[in-house]
Prior knowledge:
By secondary structure, the chain is of the alpha/beta class. The protein is built from 21 helices and 8 strands. It has 3 domains: 84 residues, SRP54, nucleotide-binding domain (Four Helix Bundle (Hemerythrin (Met), subunit A)); 185 residues, P-loop containing nucleotide triphosphate hydrolases (Rossmann fold), CATH 3.40.50.300; 143 residues, 434 Repressor (Amino-terminal Domain). β5, α9 and β6 form a beta-alpha-beta unit. The C terminus is likely disordered.
Amino acid sequence: MVLDNLGGSLRGALKKIASATRVDKALVDDAVRDIQRALLQADVNVKLVMSLSNRIRERALNEKPPAGMNPREHVINIVYQELINLIGRGTDIPLKKQTIMLVGLQGSGKTTTAAKLATYFQRRGLRTAVICADTFRAGAYDQLKALCDRQGIFFYGEKGNENAPEVAKNGLEATKKYDVRIVDTAGRHALESDLIQEMKDIHAVVNADHKLLVMDAAIGQQASEQARAFNEAVGITGVIITKLDGTAKGGGALSAVAETKTSVAFIGVGETASDLEKFEADRFISRLLGMGDIKGLIEKAQEVQIESDVDVDAMMKGKFTLKDMYKQLEAMNKMGPLKQIMQMLPFGGIGIELSDKEYQVTKERLEAYRFIMDSMTDEELEDPKIINASRIKRIARGSGTRPELVKELLKSHAAMQKAIKGMRGGMGRMNMKKLMK
Ligand code: GDP
């Protein structure tokens, strides 16, 4: 999961508050120290950490909890709000006709991101084209073309033409009828003056609606310098932080964004075309703090346009039958790696961890689950608690499976139900909806 260690430490600090008997200066100081340590370890800039912790301390000790919120919830809510302030609200890239130029250093994940971003718009119904204006790196053309071909995205490039602004210009001409046009540019290993000049030249031709800086989450404190240089050259309108799935240090990139007064538009969380997420600060922080990412889950479900009539409201009220579980598994199976989807749910910190076995609901297992459920009565499907040993035997026989598999299904259901209850409960008695606002 994104910034696992940071999330773990922050959750630890919040748990301390949630379980404290009273909120006083000692508790606040202790929690603030934990938060500072967690942020510094994740490479968040010291200055930012200090001003954040001062604000948390100040507010936690002086502000009165609003009606309906106890002092513990209030302090947790302050931490949540201040973390959101720290990373900024995020750049909203609307779903409309536009040109987007990507800039960034070599290895930042720019090429991969161009294809991911195109996939993002294409899946939302916009006709999307990618223009390869990276004429510097040998192999960029082939890599990007292959990625686009795989996703059925129109690709424009000119092999052999080293004049990047010219390629960009021709590309825009050739892709006039597309809604979203993404121009990928070349990087260098380091910030070099010819790179900056090239960006200016391409920018002069493309005049994109959005100029997004692609940054590797792991670059740490150099992020600020990069953000500043690209910002001066082309005026970046947002940042895409890549590889947040694989680093404990994303704080450097996040700090650079805060310092340069830009904001994050997307985050890259894996290597495949769908591993790009629209960045929303509240969602990101909720997830980091283990408050769950229900919104993310729902958005992902809509993206693949699955027809799933899982009753989320009923689920949030704690009603989660075997039928719901089946629908849920079926939907998740269509959405791609189950593990990733499951990790969006707040099992991590406060809820429970599902074992690897529970993640691995393969097609065959789903098939077997279907047979098993077909052999259950409606009463059993609605209320699996009544399924005793003799019923298990009957169901196994009826479905042509084994009692162990029936038990496994029931166990998975119990685990998921428990997780969903955890999701409702959040931290102790905390009202999650209130916090996620
Ligand atoms: P470029 O030189 O900036 O164009 O970088 P590439 O797009 O070629 O990416 C460099 C490497 O980073 C490739 O191996 C990508 O698969 C990988 N990569 C890019 N984005 C992500 C991400 O969000 N997560 C992970 N884990 N890997 C990524």
